[in-house]
Design goal:
This protein is mainly alpha-helical and 209 residues long. The chain has helices spanning 12-31, 35-57, 61-66, 76-86, 88-98, 119-131, 139-143, 152-176, 184-191, 199-208, and strands spanning 106-110, 113-116. Helix 2 (35-57) packs parallel to helix 8 (152-176) and helix 8 (152-176) runs parallel beside helix 10.
Length: 209
């Protein structure tokens, strides 16, 4: 039986429900050979959870209410901009330990090292290449075919994108919900460097837990 969420009680539940739908659709598309659509779904996951995290951490209740009504445009950039301050202690820890961040602006500097933005912005930029079907980021390039077929290299690459995006989304959920219960299976998942390769995401998870 489905349960209706209380309106506006908090910001993470609605986006996490939508993100779950996107993940399921992305898995289906990946398994059936529609790799670009699969990555596009994971882009939606990242943006949805980032917006929910920003609204929760930064107290943007009105903005979050206006967003689904079409009164306000929100995107990942807005969320990252707010979380630079909203998750300042985490960002500082990541700069000092792994020389990276999650939310920093593009072309900003951390400890004298030039960066192309925080990791969340960087991976979102990569996902956007697929979402917009740019040259070399579409299904015909992956498959070298005009139909949905299994291509091991494409499947493995998209699987890594899934792992990485889910890990980031989980970290964002932890930022918004510090007391969230963490399953042993997810701890094992984050510790698996073959699936989650980014040091900054693993470092963020360890710091938050």
């Amino acid at each position: 039986m489905s349960t209706r969420l209380p309106p506006y009680r908090e910001r993470m539940s609605p986006v996490m429900l939508d993100a779950n739908d996107e993940i399921q659709a992305a898995l289906y598309n990946c398994l059936t050979g529609y790799y670009r659509f699969s990555v596009g779904g994971m882009r939606n996951v990242l943006e949805l959870v980032a917006i929910g995290c920003w609204a929760e951490v930064c107290g943007k209740k009105k903005e979050f209410r206006d967003w689904p009504k079409g009164k306000l445009q929100l995107g990942l950039g807005t969320a990252c901009d707010g979380l630079i301050a909203g998750a300042a202690s985490l960002e500082s820890h990541l700069k000092s330990t792994v020389k990276d961040t999650l939310f920093a602006h593009k072309n900003s500097a951390a400890r004298g090292i030039a960066m192309q933005g925080g990791y969340v912005r960087r991976i979102f930029s990569g996902l956007s290449e697929f979402a917009h079907s740019r040259p070399n980021y579409n299904d015909s390039h992956f498959r070298e075919s005009n139909g949905p077929i299994y291509v091991k290299s494409a499947f493995n690459h998209v699987a890594w994108i899934h792992f990485e995006t889910v890990a980031i989304a989980y970290v964002l959920a932890l930022i918004a919900r510090p007391k969230m219960r963490i399953s042993p299976a997810f701890r094992e998942f984050l510790a698996d460097t073959k699936r989650v390769r980014s040091r900054v995401v693993r470092a963020a998870f360890l710091h938050l837990t």
